[in-house]
Amino acid sequence: MRNSFSPAGLILALLVALAPAASAQEAQGEPPGRTAASLLDYARQNNPEYASMRHEADAAAERVAPAGALPDPRFRLELMDITRMGEQNPTLSPERVGSTKYTLIQELPWYGKRDLKREIAELDADGATGRARGSWSEIAARLKSAHAQLYLLHRNERITRELLDLTVRLERIAQARYAGGLAMQQDVIRAQVEQTAMRGELIMLENEGRMLQARVNMLLARPAGAPLAEPEALRPLPAPARLDFAALEERVRGRNPRLFAEDAAIRSAEKKRELAYKERYPDFMLGVTPVQYGSSVKEWQLMVEFNIPLQQSSRRAMERESESMLSAARARRDATANEVLAELAENLSGIEAARRTEALAATSLLPQAELAFNSALAAYENGKADFTTLVEAQQQIRKARLSRIKAQAEAQVRLAELERLLGEDL
To answer: Rounded distance, CA 239 to CA 116, Å?
Structure first.
């Protein structure tokens, strides 16, 4: 779960407050936050972490062409016998020396090496793209979860204020009964204590909202205190039929950004192993040399040069290294797959539990709590129940309403984590 807030995160949010940010929504006078989509649109354009990952992916893509290119040719100029057997002073004029050699040299790697280097660069670029997608999936999941938590906070605050108003009315009823000698002064004091407790909770909710606002603004690269629109609704949950584990497992294996990057790393390690075995064979250099005598070229020379791969122990060590790196890449991929699939099962279970909890609260717990409160209120007004029973019934209504809202927010957090694993929205 990525919905906890640390002091370090809050400090980072305050630092981000110094960074300017622009938004089409803000230019129109509407800050982001009304929907999760508005937060995602803003972050996609402004989040610096995602921007850095995109630029790294672009840089990796630009390495493909140089990786498969031939090395630059080299040019060599040789002035032979610059004193003409001692007959003249030293000179650098090609026409006055004994002879001048113009050598053009081109290095030619062994067959297949250039292709392997280009393929390795392409796979590394794929891995960078996968990491960029994974970075965005992480950011998107955090924003979706934060939007659900903001919705929960606002609804919690609204419920608390409504119950605070109700407690004020109950206090008036208790005062009227106390004035008529039908209730004790303790009932009035208990109502006042409940009001004080609710006002304290409102202060805590306000503080938690500011902290959450700072975290969201950090992800949006906005000042920590920049306003956010009040969430108007949560995203609809997918139908239960779309949350089948077997179907989602197949999608996760094919589209999860981390698994995509690990697959690219495996294929890159395989190509690097092939390249390591290619190092058993020599690279060549070809050269052509026109030789100038006086003012004309009268001689042509050809040159072939290659390295002799004598250091076989060194090459065998490089081959063993490439084999070990390939095994490590495969093990990393298996570990990542196990972790991702475990998270998939966990979040599917969490969504189902949250859905059932919400249904239970909406259809049973909340109606029962409201019925109990109405009965307790009528009984208290008729002197058949004490004030404590009435307060407890009121608290049960609040717990039932909060239980429903918390279940909705929990389902949204689980859905955000599920979409992070898929690398796309459901």
So the answer is: 46
Domain 37-422: CATH architecture, name and number where available: Up-down Bundle (1.20)
**Is the Cα dihedral 17, 19, 24, 29 positive or negative?**
positive
CA-CA distance, 44 to 21, in Å (whole number)? 12
Confidence of residue 389 (pLDDT cuts 50, 70, 90): confident
DSSP category for residue 33: -
How far is the C-alpha of 258 from the C-alpha of 267, rounded, in Å?
Answer: 14
> What's the pLDDT tens digit per position in 21-31?
434 444 456 78
Q: How crowded is the C-beta side of 148, counted as CA atoms within 13 Å? A: 23
Residues 6+ apart with CB under 8 A from 210: none
Question: How is residue 141 written in tokens?
Answer: 């999941």
Alpha helices in 180-256 (DSSP H): 185-220, 245-255
CA atoms of 19 and 270, how far apart (whole Å): 43
What pLDDT was estimated at residue 23?
A: 41
CA–CA dist 17, 305 (Å, integer): 61
Tokens of 79: 């002035």
Chain mean pLDDT for the chain? 85
Tell me, rounded to whole angstroms, the distance of Cα 251 from its chain centroid: 19
The answer to pTM > 0.85 is no
Q: Which of 176-190, 298-312, 392-406 bottoms out in mean pLDDT, i.e. has the lowest? A: 176-190
Give the tokens for residue 406.
């918390």
Q: What is the DSSP string of 342-379?
A: HHHHHHHHHHHHHHHHHHHIIIIIHHHHHHHHHHHHHH
CA–CA distance, 184 with 406 (Å, rounded to integer): 37
CA 373 to the chain's CA centroid:
46
CB–CB of 419/243 below 8 Å? no
